[in-house]
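Reply to dn_fold:

You asked what the input looked like. This is it:
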Amino acid sequence: MARDGAVGIITIDRPQRFNSMDVATARDFRKAGLQYARDSDVRCVVIRGVDRVFCSGADLKYIREKGDPEDFSYLQPEGVTWGSARASNRSWSTCTAPFRRSNARPSPSWLR
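and this is what came back:
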């Protein structure tokens, strides 16, 4: 996390995995988003990746290797198995929720 005036900056830094989202990265991303969503001085958030890659999505190698069941329980609702479209949508919704809520704050009209 970094800040430049009213601009919050979140950098995804996992170049060895093309900035894919494993559970730890998703948790950090969500935490950063929530911090910026609660900061009334932040008017815009820039999300970027390192090493010429923005984000390749979910870390499929981690998922394929089954990872840690404790990690997967964080991302999926009760009764949904990992790998289903519903679980994938749920994990993305979990990560992006702070940014959706931040739309409720007043913002300059050109950002809408």
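The longest strand covers residues 7-12.
Hope that clears it up.
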